[in-house]
Write a structure and sequence with these properties.
The protein is α+β, with helices and mostly antiparallel strands. The chain is built from one helix and twelve strands; from the N terminus they run ββββββββββββα. It starts with a strand and ends with a helix.
Length: about 190
């Protein structure tokens, strides 16, 4: 019997989301979710979305989803959004909307993607379960010899380095956003 890893569905973890364009659409977004002070802080950055999808659909709204339930996270401004969610989610999507503050998506989905958990020291922050994937009948005369497959240590190190760079970049971006928010609030007082 062979066994494989079957990852459980990710639900509102500290994670990243790569939102890719739906067929016939353009653009892409990247989002990161970090749990701070009893809520998930979600930073979204988009590229190559048209200035206006149509004359009416000229706003881009980010939606969070869990098990088919869709809730508005916020409207992109300059291709960016810093939002909060105290509820769990496993997907994000961006729609082109014509209304100001609708509670349900009415426009076309431009980009969408599922949450991928953050990994620390090569371990996922989401529990994975081991489940049988396939069974093989072995006759008494058959022999099975193990084969060794390795990934070069350079590739593993490079992947860890990229992951750390993304994490440090996200933390740096959060600090910059926080400082800028503080300065703007102080300036308006």
């Amino acid at each position: 019997m062979f066994f494989g890893l079957a990852a459980s569905r990710v639900s509102a973890n500290e994670g990243v989301v790569h939102l890719t364009a739906e067929p016939g659409k353009v653009g892409s977004c990247f989002a990161a979710s970090v749990f701070i002070d009893s809520s998930y802080r979600i930073l979204v950055s988009c590229r190559n979305l048209p200035v206006a999808w149509s004359a009416e659909a000229n706003r881009y709204v980010v939606w969070r989803e869990l098990e088919g339930k869709v809730v508005r996270l916020g409207e992109l401004s300059g291709g960016k959004l810093l939002g909060n969610s105290s509820d769990k989610f496993d997907r994000l999507s961006v729609t082109a909307e014509s209304g100001n503050y609708g509670n349900k998506p009415q426009g076309e989905v431009m980009v969408a993607g599922a949450v991928s958990p953050l990994e620390f020291d090569g371990k996922s922050s989401v529990t994975t379960t081991i489940a049988p994937m396939d069974t093989v009948k072995v006759s008494p005369t058959a022999s099975i010899s193990p084969t060794k497959t390795t990934i070069g240590t350079g590739a593993v190190g490079a992947l860890k380095g990229v992951g750390r760079a993304i994490l440090y970049g996200f933390i740096f971006l959060l600090v910059v956003v926080g400082v800028m928010g503080f300065l703007v609030r102080r300036k308006t007082l």
